[in-house]
Amino acid sequence: MIKIILISSILLLSNLDTFLKFISARIKISKRMKYNVVDENFIQKLNSGILNGLIPRKVLEQLAKEYKFSNLEKAIQKGENIQKSIQQDTNNDLTSKSFAQIWQTCETNGASLSPVLTKFNEQLQVEKELRQELESSLSGAKLSAIVLAFLPIIGVLLANFLGANSFNWIINSNVGKICLILGILLEILGVFWVKKIINNIEKYL
Questions:
Q1: To the nearest whole number, what is the mean pLDDT of the chain?
Q2: What is d(CA 124, CA 122) in angstroms, rounded to the nearest whole number?
């Protein structure tokens, strides 16, 4: 029974991180497939069109077709308020909502869009760089967590190879069995704990 628990735990620890990464990637891909959002390229194309003397709503309509923003395209064609339509098309994405507010404020007050979009795009670039730095830092943290999770198992294996017969002590002695069960529980708890911390940070990426 103890051997089965040990083998199951090793398999769980070795595959848990890969499994969670796979699920996380599938969720992100699914979201990207379902919704497009206003990004740096969208803002840059819009601003370039305006600077070239094109009518802002015409440029926005072309981008709505390109990004498949059906509600936005209809709102532009009907001359309606675009703020709500952008939120519907982008599932209330924060950057998209910010862009919609900027557009509506400038259009309502007759202000020039180009300078505001330039500043907005610069801010998006800075945020993108910060996200990339944070993702890079998280990669190191994830690797460290995985290595630390496997250290007890590696330690037992090394002790066994050095002739300490640690497996026999763990499996056959009462103290060893207690240590094994507690170790497995703490390992699993630790993996989930670290994963939860990382997920909480990744929500802001």
A1: 78
A2: 5
